[in-house]
Amino acid sequence: MSKDLERFSATLAHIENHLFEAVSLKQLAKQALLSEYTFHRFFTYLTGYSFSTYLRNRRLSEAVELLRKDYSIDEISELCGYANRSAFNRAFSKFHGITPSQAKDLKAAINFFPPIQLDIQINGGKTLNYHIEQLPSFTVVGKMAAYQLEDDLFKNTGKQWETFFSDQELRTFAESDATRKNFFGLKRVPYFAVANPVKPQSGNLNYFTGFVLNQHASTDYLTIEIPKQTYAVFVSEPYDYRKTENVSNAYYQLQQQIFNTWLPQTDYQKIDGPELETYLSLEDRACLEIWLPIEKE
């Protein structure tokens, strides 16, 4: 088990020990010695839930015991982190299917959401294609937006691509001599994404979509320098890029393999730094590539 995974496992115990106290993604990521974005993905792909969803479900599950110990609904609402009683009532009713008052009855049917015990098992038979590559520093040009590390993160970054492709002026600029078309190699499409090319605010991801800018070229679009870095480059299974859901499915499956299997079972460690998302063109199909900044443990 990698050191990252050991530290991540400890955060699950920390959540249980401080379930009704102030527990934040920032605090747990710091405890695990991971960036918030990396911790968010470890949490999502190892547990199947985002941190906020998991914490909410655990609190609502355990809130029943507090109700049956005669805590007031206002007290429990505050312990569970809700702004007011009505917000808690709505969340509780949605989770359990009954109101807090009804849940006080020992005969009432309620939902139990148990704490997750992390158990990594080695599952053979599934190939994950990757190689190690070092890139020199380079400049990216395009657009960037900040998104919260929540359940809708990947849906929102997908919407950014829709906005990106609708910018005809940017696409015309990208087709000019100002951009480097084959920086990542042959058959790679010229556009790509960068996760956190600049340090984000706490709880956010800075997601950049754009192109590689040629040296000495100038532009009014946003430009960011990406430092020299060693990457593990992972390649997805081919998919039909004409269906949007195929892209998101390939992304999710590849990230899940990386964080569920590769990182826990190799002697490489994910380090802070910009992460890249490039695309390999195969006529009517494509492959997604994820470039993860790494070092040996």
Notes on the structure:
By secondary structure, this protein is of the alpha+beta class. 39% of the residues lie in helices and 23% in strands. The chain has helices at residues 3-17, 25-31, 36-47, 51-68, 73-79, 85-96, 100-103, 153-165, 168-174, 244-265, and strands at 129-135, 138-148, 179-180, 192-195, 204-213, 222-226, 229-235, 268-270, 275-282, 285-296. Strands 1, 2, 3, 4, 5, 6, 7, 8, 9 and 10 form a ten-stranded antiparallel beta sheet that branches. Helix 2 crosses helix 3 (36-47), helix 3 packs across helix 10 and helix 5 (73-79) packs across helix 6 (85-96). The longest helix has 22 residues, at 244-265. The chain is elongated. The mean pLDDT is 91.
Give a summary of the structure in a few sentences.
This protein is α+β, with helices and mostly antiparallel strands and 297 residues long.
Topology:
Elements: H1 3-17, H2 25-31, H3 36-47, H4 51-68, H5 73-79, H6 85-96, H7 100-103, E1 129-135, E2 138-148, H8 153-165, H9 168-174, E3 179-180, E4 192-195, E5 204-213, E6 222-226, E7 229-235, H10 244-265, E8 268-270, E9 275-282, E10 285-296
Helix pairs in contact: 2-3, 3-10, 5-6
